[in-house]
Structure formats: structure tokens, C-alpha cells
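Subgroup meeting minutes
Present: P.N., E.W., G.H.
Scribe: E.W.

1. P.N. recapped why we're keeping a running log of single-chain structure predictions: easier to compare across weeks, and new members can see raw inputs and outputs side by side.
2. G.H. added today's entry (250 aa).
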Amino acid sequence: MKVEYRDICVTLGGKKILNQVNVVAESGKITGVIGPNGCGKSTLLKTTLGIYPRDSGDILLNDSSLAGFSSKQLARLYGYVGQGNSAAFDFSVYDIVAMAVQVQGRKVKRVEKDIVMMALEQLDIAHICDRNIQNLSGGEKKMVFIARAFAQGVDTIILDEPTNHLDIKHQLFILDILRRSKKTILIVLHDLRLAAHYCDKLYLVNNGCNVCNGTPVEVLKKDIVERVFGVNGYACEARDGSLDFTLQMN
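Output recorded in log:
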């Protein structure tokens, strides 16, 4: 499913946070949104859920406006993993992931268990299925919420900094899973090296506006990186043909 943010404008507390931002996540691709802290990346994703209202602009799912779908329909179209790892109640890991199955209307317990355990095994956390979500580390909680998105059985997942709280091994593990899934992935990332290596297309946002978009090599050029991030780095092709980000220390 293609997800398109068209001319999104958001004002919070009297301050313009997003000013006509455009992003298109193509079906089956990993699309990354990058930019400095406070540039509006997370705000953009939160407009999808209505957490932050839009002044203007529209969000389209396969060219149909988000406004035309009910909450239940949207839950069957895309999954969302936010930055926060909080859980209000003392649910088990199994119960947290099972919520995704129940949203989809699958009420047969055997089917629910199969789907939940498959998602937990995919994230390599089946061994903590009975643990209380409140007693997990930040990284473990993040893995649980990503498993919940997989359990929804949707073709599109939107993720806001999913590698937060994870060590490097689990960062790579998660991004490898997302790439192999062949789902439509829209992801906010801070780490430019991960963005260069895993994303098919990047959108660079700064001060609430689009700067540029394209392949990692097109976006993460030396002059652009220095101007926006204030560091000396650029995307380049690694020896194995994959893309990498080179940071040169002064």
C-alpha cells in the first residue's frame, strides 16, 4: 500500500512545526524520514493517528484520503510503532501482542495463539511471552510493540525511531526483519548510517520543511549533510555493493 503525506501543515502552541511537507512511501519499499532533532519528523507520523491535528494537507492510502476510513478499517491497513514504550496496565507480553489480533476480529483462540507466537518468534522474544510488560527493559518493550505490529497482519508499518533503546545487534536485527518482510515501511531514523544502508528512498526534513528526497546517495551528499547536520559525512557504496554512510572526523 502506498502512503502519501501531501502538503502537511501543523501548528502547535502557536508555532509552525510542519510547513507543506510531502512524503511518499512506495509499496513494498523502505522509505526513511531523516533530519535534525526537532525538525518535525515525529510530528509528521503522529498526524497519521490524529495525535497532532493538521492545519491543512491530506494523507492518502493508495490515493484515497485517510478521512474516508474508519478507525477499524485503518487498524486493518497499517501498523504503527511510536517512540514511547509505555504501557498503562500490567499486561503480559502475550496480551500486548494479542491485542493486534483482536483488533483484526480474529476471535478463535487457537488462531490467535498461532499468530501471536509466530510474531513473538519472528522477533526472537517468545521466551518472554509470559512476562509483565512493566518489568521489561526499554529495548525489550520496543521489540514487543514491533511484534504487535507484525501480528496485525498488515502490509504497511509506520515506525518512529524503532531502533531507540536497542543495542547495535538488535538494531540490525530489526531492520533486517523489516527489509525481508517486503512490506511498505515508513520509518523515522536518526542514525544516518542505518538510513543509508536500509532505506530505498529518503526524505530529508529540516525546520519543518522538505529539503530534498531521493536515494540515500542523492540525499546524503557531503554538502547537504554539512549544511543540515553540521557534520562532515556522505553516503557511499561499500565494497559489497550496499550503501554506507561515511563520517569524517575533524
